[in-house]
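Is farnesyl diphosphate placement plausible here? Inputs below.
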Amino acid sequence: MSLRDKINMSKLPVHIAVIMDGNGRWAALHGHERVFGHQKGVEPVRNVVEAAAELGIGYLTLYAFSTENWGRPDDEVSALMELMVQSLNNEKDNLLKNNIRLIAIGDFARLNENVRTKLFDTINLTSGSTGLTLILALSYSSKWEITEAVRKLVRDVNAGVIDREAICEEEIEKRLTTYGIPDPDLMIRTSGELRISNFLLWQLAYSEFYFTDILWPDFGKEDLYGAIVDFQNRVRRFGKTSEQILEK
Ligand code: FPP
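Reply from A.M.:
I modeled the complex. Tokens:
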């Protein structure tokens, strides 16, 4: 039996965010270079995106490359960038066919021309899709994003666009890269690491976390279904008491 059958389709998470971790360890475990692990990590990306689209999940954010990842050895960074371009090339028709809209968050100024062009081309190509929104976090870190938002806010205060006393959560959210996207309901991290690693710090304030020891290249559709079933068994209180939640 598939765990797919245990999913309550009326209680699906609207937004799932994933930290895809463990490619390097997977490669070492199988006697390969780290880059081979990243190459192997493309297939689970395809499977998870396909499964999410098929279930009717609204938003799926994948942490594909962090600001801190720029500090990895040059050849690994180049290989990851090359993999992005290749994957976008290979998957663009699939995205269209599955009615998936691609968007991205991150510091794109740091991406090389080739990656940036491919990324924006695919974003434009899929902009009319009305199914799953796939969000690639690329050259992204939450502290970078929040710092940028603060900078914009100060600029807007100085320009008289907003009064200093009118600063509120909504005004901060308006200046985050994720504005308009509902906060993740569920955050999945693979490979047994129990960290957030500078990912969506603001947006994950009330998300449910799901950690699994499975290394990313081994993560499959069943694992996604399992995470969703687990999520559906949680009671989300958003700071309230259990009694208040049950009364609803
Ligand atoms: C973390 O594993 C993974 C990454 C930094 C890159 C994720 C990239 C992919 C899955 C490739 C394809 C992505 C797309 C969107 C097409 P790690 O290298 O930190 O593993 P380790 O912790 O075992 O060293």
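Short version: The chain has a mean pLDDT of 97.
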